[in-house]
Design a protein that fits this description.
Number of domains: 1
Number of helices: 1
Helix content: under 10%
Oligomer: single chain
Bound molecules: zinc ion
Radius of gyration: 15 Å
Strand content: 25-35%
Order of helices and strands: HEEEEEEEEE
Strand order of the largest sheet: 6-5-4-1-2-3-7
Shape: globular
Number of strands: 9
Length: 138
């Protein structure tokens, strides 16, 4: 089934689902904020319905991301993003929950996570938008 056919026309405007692709849960945001090595930089290569494709910039690969809201008002082909393949897309305007397909799998654990300490983000969940917001970004 084409990914765009998964769009639920009856999806509630006040969605309260915390599954991947819906509202970002503060615990998930907090956990992944503490794992800064897990992101991959990418660029949006297509947007079709609620699905977008991201091609990675530093590795040969791509991933498909589904989100329950249309993101075409803030992202376009060529937009820079970051993907945490387990469940997050950083649009530059917050971290949104996504359901991913394809991709390269989780970024391997670093041998010394302490070297990433300065990259660890403090985050909050914006209950109004369902996004994770980094509150300590330089
Ligand atoms: Zn939803």
């Amino acid at each position: 089934m084409p990914a765009a056919d998964r769009v639920d026309a009856d999806h509630p405007a006040n969605c309260g689902t915390y599954g991947n692709g819906h509202v970002a849960h503060y615990i998930g945001i907090r956990i992944l904020g503490g794992r800064p090595w897990g992101w991959r930089d990418g660029v949006v290569t297509s947007i079709r319905g609620l699905d977008l494709q991201v091609r990675y910039l530093q590795e040969d690969g791509a991933v498909s991301c589904w989100h329950h809201r249309d993101l075409s008002n803030e992202l376009a082909v060529g937009s820079p993003v970051r993907v945490f393949e387990s469940s997050l897309l950083d649009t530059g305007n917050g971290w949104i929950s996504v359901r991913t397909e394809g991709g390269l799998g989780a970024v391997p654990e670093p041998t010394d996570p302490d070297l990433w300490a300065s990259e660890v983000n403090t985050t909050i969940a914006d209950l109004n938008t369902g996004r994770g917001i980094v509150v300590d970004e330089a």
